[in-house]
Amino acid sequence: MTPSIYSLFVLGAILTCVLTPLIRYLAIQKGFVDCPQRARKVHHQATPRLGGAAILIAFLAVTLIAGFSVPNLSPILWGPNPIFGLVLLGSIGIFAIGFLDDLARLSPRVKLFGEFVIVGLVVWGASLSFTELQFIGLGTIIVPELLGFGLACLWIVGMANAINLIDGLDGLASGITLTGLLAVAVVGYLAGISSATWMSTLLIGCLLGFLVYNSRPASIFLGDCGSLTLGYLAGCLTLIASFREGGVLDGIFPVLAFAVPILDSIFAIFRRTMRGRSPFSPDMEHFHHRLMAKGLSHGKAVLAMWVMAFSCSLVAIAAAFGKGDQLFAVFVFFGLGGFILLRYLGYFRFEFFGEGLTTLIKDRKSVKSAEQSIKEAEELVTNALDFETLEKCLSKAAEGIRFQQATLSLFEDEGRLGTDLKENDPSVGKIISWRDGVQSGYFSRDKEFVAEFPISGRNYSYGTVKYIFLDGRKSLSVQDEVLLERIHDSISNLARKFRKENFTI
Q1: Which tens digit of pLDDT belongs to each residue from 246-287?
Q2: Pairwise CA distance, residues 238 & 156, whole Å
Q3: Judgement on whether residues 14 and 148 belong to the same structural domain of the protein
Q4: 332 to 337, 338, 466, 498: CA distances (angstroms)
Q5: Which of 69, 191, 275, 366 is most buried, judged by most C-beta within 10 A?
């Protein structure tokens, strides 16, 4: 008997529900956790990552079952035109890139290069490129073959990173991906693209099973491996669902279905670039951060984002099949509503004129100067042969981040991180201190702010580094934290290196 789409949907949800706690246990044992001791983190306890592994394994398993039992799916999985087979192979590659990023923090350039290589092979092999693009009211536009290939790759890679960027609250990325896939499933069904309907519905089932553990308070996160993979699959499925008769691609539907993460990413890249920062550097000005700044709780901010994403999905469905004045009225209403919402969140306050422009130029210069200081400090650590070099490194880093003291504490023995992810309080064996030479010998404790970062492996702690600020601040800005993380990672690597070489404390 051929299983129905509903039975496979339920199977995906159940299988993900079963796999997620197993993946969570494995992540804790291996130390794949996200620690909350960062200014931009909104969770309050260390939480396992790798939730994307449960989703992908369940999705692949159910897809395999569907391929053997559903006649119209097997040809596109491993038949003469294995479109979805190639898409699934690509998802494994994207997952691997995300996993390596979770493990070792890949540079943005390396990540993007790997993503484009994998996606390019998938687009070429599965024939996801297009030569005609259809827009409502503009007719059909002829696109050169090479440009169509490039745009298809850019769309999928962009979607992967958009979902990754918006993954900042419990259940946010998985919920928004789910709402977008609902639109894909509906459009695929109405357009007669059964493969898109089947695959998106299966993935929705897996996401629902994962949300049991990922909703607030989340006991496991997607991780980069999960968010990148979800974005990749969403990008591929929207493309497949957007193809019309004659190979014409609907250029409106994919954008509207995932308008929330797309707009969030565009605004993020714009504001970071204008401030002289890397487009990939984190901040706390995403849609969900702005909603929480307006007074919404964690859960209400996520719910508001889900509602926004669901509204966009409804408009996307209407745009895929709607015609005439009624559709125009829907777009006008939707556009005005979106503009009012974005204005409410503070995204249309143009601060790039007059005094605002002057301030922006100063900020860019300040950021560039700090970045250069941190780069020089990283080079010092990279070439260090002993811990004495750390004094020069910290002195150079202080020029950019402006801390006044730093203390490196190394444990005598490796401090095992238990299942509660807390140190067993091992004894300190060596302390290396640095102090700004121009600092006065006396200062008020009221002005002291300490940023403490662990030196640790996946599930072992080797020590801690404390950065002490005496300028009266009460918290660490996101920009300072990002720079501090860079130099801290270099110092941590040096400390671990000496420990592995049996460095005598």
Answers
A1: 667 777 888 889 999 999 998 888 877 776 677 777 777 788
A2: 9
A3: yes
A4: 8, 10, 54, 63
A5: 191
